[in-house]
Amino acid sequence: MRILFLRTAALLAVCLSFSAAARQPVVLISIDGLRPVEVLEAAPRGLDLPNLTRFLRDGAYAEGVRGVLPTLTYVSHTTLITGVAPGRHGVTHNVTFDPFLKNAQGWDWYASDIRVPTLWDAARKAGLRTANDYWPVSVGAPVDFNLPQIWRAGAADDVKLQDALTTPGLLAKMQPALGPFPPGADWEIDGDVQRTRYAVWLLAHERPQFMTVYLTAYDTEQHHTGLGTPADKQVLERIDGLVGEIVAAARKADPRSVVAVVSDHGFAPLHTDVNLMRAFADAGLIRYDANGAVQGWEAMPWFDGGASSVYLRDVHDDAVRQRTAALLAGLAADPALGIQQVLDHAAVVARDGDPAAAFLVLFRPGFEMAPDPKKPLLSASSYKGMHGYDPALPAMYASFFIRGAGIPAGRDLGVIDMRAIAPTLAHLLGVALPDAEVKPLAL
Questions:
Q1: 367, 369, 370, 372 alpha-carbon torsion, rounded to 10°
Q2: If you average pLDDT over residues 17-37, what whole number do you get?
Q3: What is the pLDDT of residues 414-442, one digit of tens each?
């Protein structure tokens, strides 16, 4: 009986190993802030993007991807990896809500905050080898070879933090050949170049069957110099070359590989900061001490770029809720403040936003909530481009391009729902993602 059991177990292990090996590998590349129009109309815009435009000819693509509320990096990347809107997956900001600023502007770095299964979870459950190169909200993710995104002070100790949270021994194994992994807060093109070297190495040496890669410099450039500038175009053309390197490495590792290129949001030109914190303080809803630190609060807006979530200290205090609603209505009535719409709690929940928010302020493109509470009510923005706006706006549409074995050539998918991307990749991987809120795309 013992011999029969051992033989059965061995046969089962062989079958599971074969099943995992037979699955189609998928590499998911995110180019932060990539608008689909930059690829769809590359030539008329004076862009040389041979690797990205090849996806249009050899694979399937979306004319636009309707994102989630708000259209922020961490919020969207969690939807891209789960197929679930932020109201359910739990990552509702980039910077976690922290009214007294005790968390030193900590971001939502930790995969433990994701409340639903991810593609990493599904792949691990199916026995697939996984890798991650800097994807947001990936600290502690169930990934075999994990290079998570994390930073704190922007000082030398951040490198030690990165090493401590990376898969044990991985950096020591890779750095002698590749050089240091970029610090967590390095979002410039040289950081993307170095992280791409790491991605190519992982594909060549560890051969993951599912891998996530995140490239940041295009978003950074659009924030700082605006849309369509020479610097902006140069960065995107260099990123196009990095995509080509990753595609080549994936195909060399396994000719059956599928590569998907996505983005988290679009972009819009920016000119004006609106200091909602000052307006709330003037209304007596936020109190500051003599040093300008928050001493107490009843209602508080939180920075979401082209949007602002508003929270109540006591959600059962109807008087404060009514005062806040009246304040927001008065602000929205002033066209100089650029407020497109104020959503109340029920409307936020109906649009799958943060269920903890009492209100959500949506600005018109060109305006944002001021990131500095010491500014006047209106001031010129230091940034030149922004996102976070209503995902229904075409300017906020994200990107989706996919090609590889079995993907039809030249397939125009039209405008798609961001939540459809994760279940589509799960289908290609042959894994289950039952919590996804929409069906896979028909490729």
A1: -170
A2: 81
A3: 999 999 999 999 999 999 999 999 999 99
Q: Using one digit for the tens of pLDDT, what is the confidence trace for 75-114?
A: 999 999 999 999 999 999 999 999 999 998 999 999 999 9
Q: Is 110 helix (H, G, I), strand (E, B) or coil?
A: strand
The three-state secondary structure class of 301 is strand
pLDDT of residue 205: 98
| Domain 21-267+393-429: assigned CATH number | 3.40.720.10
Q: Which CATH class is domain 272-382?
A: alpha beta
Within 8 A by CB and 6+ apart from 418, the residues are 65, 66, 67, 68, 76, 79, 80, 398
**Mean pLDDT value across the chain:** 94
Residue type, 291: N
Triad 180, 261, 59: Cα angle to 5°: 140
Query: If you search the block for the tokens 């459809």, which residue do you land on?
Result: 420
- Residue count of the chain, please give it: 443
Q: What's the burial of 400, exposed, middle or buried (CB within 10 Å: 0-12/13-18/19+)?
A: buried
Taking the C-alpha atoms of residue 9 and residue 3, their distance in angstroms, rounded to an integer, is: 10
**The tokens 């010491």 sit on which residue?**
374
On whether the CB atoms of residues 161 and 152 are closer than 8 A, the answer is yes
DSSP label at residue 264: S
The structural domains of the chain, with segments of one domain joined by +, span 21-267+393-429, 272-382
The dihedral formed by the CA atoms of 188, 194, 199 and 203, expressed in degrees to the nearest 10: 160
Token digits of residue 191: 């950081």
Residue 44 DSSP SS3: coil
DSSP code at position 73: H
Secondary structure class of 141 (helix, strand, coil): coil
Tokens representing residue 122 in the block: 């599904």
